Amino acid sequence: MTMREWCDSRAQRMRLHELERLPVAERERIIGYEIKVVSAFMKSAEGERILNEGTDKEIAEYLDVASLPLLQEYVAGTRFDVPREKWPSVGVDFDLDEYGNPKLIAVEDIHKDLSTLQQNNGNGFAISDQVFLTNWHVLEDTAKAFYAEHDIPLDTLAKYDKAMKEGFDIVSARLPDGFDAPHYDAAFFMMKDSDVHGSYICVAGIDPDATSDRHGLKRYPAMAIRMTPRMCAYMKLSTQFTHCFMYALPPGEAIVRSDETTPARGTSGSPVMMNGAVVGINHSSISFEDFNRGVMCEFGFFNGPDAINEALRDKGLHYDPSNNVVSQ
């Protein structure tokens, strides 16, 4: 069977018309088998060739194969899920404290009043008992407003802007005193992008809206696709995306709504989970009409181990305004 034939028979093979209602064990079997076959193709020599130098037709078929039709309802309660009881992310508020540090909202506080996070600025996750990671674009506007208010030169933030334009939308910041953030194994410190490509991942974010679960949480189960210059050219994206991974989003998550935002917007800064560990940080999404595939595509993007380690170790992207404020 060719991969084209494999994709054409996917809906029937995965029993998508009833998958959500099947017992956990049966869903795990169906989803696990699909992941195994797709992963083997993506990691094969042929998969690598297509990713780096494939024709438009070959890349279109590659994306069909790699875009598993997974929803959070399909993986709920299975080993592919991220349970609320072990939720890895925290909400990042629009407000900063008196020293300019971000305010965070714990997952256990969400159910008390969903409205407190209806306009959350994004997500973050702890990488130690003192530091958490998020996107620079999540903090950018409030940080610049705070610096301007306290007459702190904005050029001290220039390195974050520069890094984001280069494809490193990553920044670490201090955890608020007394804030008990969940601790997951930050596997990216010991991994490379090659360990993540072609693997099953799940983005786990706090984003209460119409497409989240009843607790205000979102899961994007998908396969991690390493971006290459050839893939960027196919999708007409700038080369800064070569520092990223791509994954297929559920239908509608990247479509612009009447308020000029997308449902996926609030998941910026969410951790990307793989085998129970954090391997990446989510940062953006796009939708575009792929004429080669004849469909409207929706993809999310995240920085993986290589980009995170470079951002933290080489670029020193740690946001800490405290000394600037105290010295004023």
State the CATH topology: Thrombin, subunit H
Identify the overall geometry. globular
Q: Approximately how much helix is present in the residues?
A: 25-40%
Strand content: 15-25%
Domain tally: 1
Cα-atom radius of gyration: 20 Å
- Number of helix segments? 12
What distance lies between the first and last C-alpha atoms, to the nearest angstrom?
A: 69 Å
Strand order of the largest sheet: 7-6-10-11-12-9-8
Sheet with the most strands? Answer: 7 strands, antiparallel
Pairing-aware structural class of the strands and helices? alpha+beta
Tell me what you see in this structure.
There is one protein chain. The chain is α+β, with helices and mostly antiparallel strands and 328 residues long. The chain has a single domain (85-328), classed as Thrombin, subunit H, CATH 2.40.10.10. It is built from 12 helices and 13 strands. The longest helix has 20 residues, at 24-43.
Compact overview of the structure:
The chain is built from twelve helices and 13 strands.
Give a topology summary.
Blueprint: H1 3-8, H2 10-13, H3 24-43, H4 45-53, H5 56-66, H6 72-75, E1 90-96, E2 102-105, E3 122-126, E4 131-134, H7 136-149, H8 158-165, E5 171-174, H9 193-196, E6 200-206, E7 217-223, E8 225-226, H10 229-235, E9 244-248, E10 271-274, E11 277-290, E12 295-303, H11 305-314, E13 318-319, H12 322-326
Parallel strand pairs: 5-13
Antiparallel strand pairs: 1-2, 1-3, 3-4, 4-5, 6-7, 6-10, 8-9, 9-12, 10-11, 11-12
